[in-house]
Amino acid sequence: MFIQTETTPNPATLKFLPGETVLASGTADFPNAGAGEKSPLARRIFAIEGVTGVFLGRDFVTVTKSEDAPWDHLKPSILGAIMEHFQSGAPAIEGEAPANDGHATHDGPDSEIVGQIKELLDTRVRPAVAQDGGDITFHGFDRGIVYLHMQGACAGCPSSTLTLKMGIENLLRHYIPEVIEVRPVA
């Protein structure tokens, strides 16, 4: 098994491409070891000292490290953990995988606007940020303000504010006049 690695815009995060399907659909964000308990793959990676986050995509695994842990020491261990996982035949996530698209649900008077926001995120934004090892999902819409959840390499990325303001906010405001601002949620 040959696993490729790619840098991401976030220096604390690396993207690992095992050359196999990681998740059949959707994404899974494990911002800490406790959240990764339902994932045999995430548990293996969190067992490595210095790993602070794991994000699973369709064909990639994104790993975030602590500030003081050097990639030179972590990378071989992470490659080994990913290889062991795929050789074990265990699923990436135990039990039923979530059947949703990652977006928060929204009912009410703005449901048409929210539908447009989600469509633009799915067709224009999410494919681009997936290439960088992350994901951005809809969290809420209130009085013209769109709240988005940053995951994987996007969470804590130095360029995420620029991506939100100059990229996503401009895109949404262009196509949906009701959008005034875009803000991240923790």
From TrEMBL:
Domain Scaffold protein Nfu/NifU N-terminal residues, every copy: 3-89
Source species, domain of life: Bacteria
A GO molecular function held by the record: iron ion binding
Record Pfam families: Nfu_N, NifU
Matching InterPro entries: FSCA_dom_sf (IPR034904), Nfu/NifU_N (IPR014824), Nfu/NifU_N_sf (IPR036498), NFU1-like (IPR035433), NIF_FeS_clus_asmbl_NifU_C (IPR001075)
GO biological process, one term: iron-sulfur cluster assembly
Family designation: Belongs to the NifU family.
PANTHER family, alphabetized: IRON-SULFUR CLUSTER SCAFFOLD PROTEIN NFU-RELATED (PTHR11178), NFU1 IRON-SULFUR CLUSTER SCAFFOLD HOMOLOG, MITOCHONDRIAL (PTHR11178:SF1)
Name of this protein: NifU family protein
Organism of derivation: Paracoccus onubensis
